[in-house]
Specification:
Helix content is 65%, strand content 0%. By secondary structure, the chain is mainly α. The protein starts with 16 loop residues before the first helix and ends in an 8-residue tail after the last helix.
């Protein structure tokens, strides 16, 4: 039986300032997308659910994918060097 202390976990390094800004902007965009989708859905109450989902789902998926790409792009070099085993970190 494997015990909890025997399992190795890979800890992620803390996010830098640029990455934190991306997260905050993505959160604000998701909130705005939610408000927009609700507003569009209320325009036709009979079809509120399909209108809401047709607006919200694509917008959120695009926002999350772009946020993920930007967070990876804004990694600091020291974090990338530690993430790749066998790489030489610059001095």
């Amino acid at each position: 039986m494997i015990r909890a202390h025997q399992i190795r976990t890979r800890r992620r390094p803390p996010m830098n300032t640029k990455q934190k800004i991306v997260v905050v902007v993505a959160d604000i965009l998701i909130f705005a997308e939610l408000a927009y989708s609700i507003m569009q859905g209320k325009s036709n109450p009979e079809y509120m659910t399909p209108i809401f989902f047709k607006n919200f789902i694509p917008l959120v998926v695009i926002t999350l994918v772009l946020a993920r790409i930007l967070i990876k792009r804004f990694r600091t070099e020291s974090i990338e060097a530690r993430a790749k085993p066998g790489s030489i970190s610059p001095k």
